[in-house]
Design goal:
about 160 residues; single chain; mainly beta
Length: about 160
């Protein structure tokens, strides 16, 4: 891994993101917000919960609420895929688990490579996105997990099919 002192001038620093797929789209969250990544496990449903809340899981003796990001963002896909991975994060002193189709890579970039969020072209509420990165022809949306969790699900997210 390159040393931060090798960074270009203007105060740019190296940042790292966990890249994952949701309905054939690429998303990322800062690696320092990820507690761990696990393979998908059975989820205990919570009666009456919104569609985007899949239920709960036990993570080493702690209970984590499991959120289906595809349902949360009302993303539809051509073929229904079962999630392969769960990303565990601690936000607001609470443990959350996000189901994702697949964690694909760790991205290391210079902070100045992050572009502002385009006003169109994203299939996710733009207030959930802090910026985008273009890598190898792919547009990777950088998510703000605090906003994803703090705001109520968009209308239709509870009834949209994944």
């Amino acid at each position: 891994m390159p040393a931060e002192s090798a960074a270009p001038s203007r105060g740019a620093r190296l940042v790292q993101f966990v890249i994952f797929k949701l309905a054939e789209e690429d998303f990322a969250i800062p690696i320092d917000e990820v507690r761990e990544i696990i393979r998908a496990v059975p989820v205990t449903p919570v009666p009456g919960a919104p569609r985007s809340i899949r239920g709960m899981i036990n993570v080493r003796g702690e209970v984590a609420s499991v959120i289906d990001l595809k349902a949360r963002f009302s993303l539809r896909e051509k073929f229904s895929l079962e999630p392969k991975h769960i990303i565990i994060t601690a936000q607001m002193k609470t443990l959350f688990a996000f189901t994702v189709d697949e964690v694909t890579e760790i991205l290391r970039i210079m902070e100045n490579e992050i572009k502002t969020t385009p006003m169109t072209g994203l299939r996710v509420e733009e207030n959930y996105v802090t910026g985008v990165v273009i890598r190898e022809g792919r547009l990777i949306a950088l998510l703000d997990l605090a906003k994803v969790l703090a705001e109520p699900a968009p209308a239709g997210a509870a009834s949209a099919g994944a």
